[in-house]
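Final report, Chapter 2: Outcomes

The project's central promise was a pipeline that accepts a single protein chain and returns its three-dimensional structure in a standardized token representation, suitable for archiving and comparison. That pipeline is now operational. To close this chapter, we reproduce one record exactly as it appears in the project archive, with the input sequence first and the structure output second.
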Amino acid sequence: MNPLVVVDVRTVLGQFTGIGRYALSLVPLMIRARPDWRFHLFVAAGSEPLFAHLGDRCTVEAAPPVPQHPASDWWLHVTLPAWLRQHEASLFFSAANYLPIQSGGAKRVVTIHDLVPYRFPGLDPLKFVLYLRANLRLCSWVADAIVAVSRNTAKEVEQILAAPRDRVHVVHNGVGSEFRKLSAEELATVLASRPNIAALEPGFLLSVGTHTPRKNFSRLIAAIAKLQTRVPLVLAGPSGQALRLARTEARTQGVEERVRFIDYPDDTGLVALYNMAGLFVFPALYEGFGIPMLEAMGCGTPVAASSSSCLPEVAGDQAEYFDPTSTEDMARVINRVLTDDTLRNRLSREGPGRAASFTWQSAAESTCRVLEGVLE
């Protein structure tokens, strides 16, 4: 009998960044890669249409949202194991950091993206940090296999969570083929329907993501004041209180007129931003993988990035690196890339090849092999 593989993709909500992008990119390819498996997806309510095209071997069902929701905990630890047992599921795969205490007779595999609750515990209220830590620790105890999205994350899973090395498997994330260099005509077509992006003067510095302390945008804004040129910085993503804090930082540093904030765009708009940018800057203090770097590289945009965590592992020699705790070093590296035509042209030329070495197809196949190893 063909195995029934149950997948938790409830993280696909709203803007498809980070863990949501991972699930939405990976799982459909896993389903196509194993035509002899049956799949059942648990999704967040409202996200069912995103997975409705996956064929007769895949059924889709809504479940409570995750995380920090009492109904989610009850579903995960009580309802789900009963469902797995009733339907004789072979394996449960969680795309993000959560596993049930009871197996329901199924093998359990989880992807751990990062260990932010351990590395940066001050980012969230203590109660939530303890909740996240408990879930990660549970995963290390009960998982038959753990997928880590980088070697750096795998090392931390082994060292911090004390997970056995033979149960931890490194499977790098991918980058979509839509992140590529656009022709002038293609770019003009995209910009015609996106006036907020079309209003930007090409050649700006670009960074994208939520404005949390870990993303380190405050130091990036401070570094802008130290540049030898008045090139503007575009930050895509900050909103709400984070946006207000970023604006305050820009005023404090005296660069308010040089920092532009825009909402996080859809993928087509994001590709246009990368194509228009003169340099993509990724100042994060800590990342599990760092997909935006590869997206920028795929578009031929030079990248300057933090030397922390997994980022050199992902970007290799196709990026320049700075100390993310030093605004002086950050400004020095940005200045170097902006003023060194030979370096900038090399990064632009070699970036697409580096990005192309990370594909979601490869990630899906590697993840399926991890699941096969558990099913044997």
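Archive annotation: The domain at 4-174+359-375 is CATH 3.40.50.2000 (Rossmann fold).
This record, like all others produced under the grant, will remain available to the consortium after the project formally closes.
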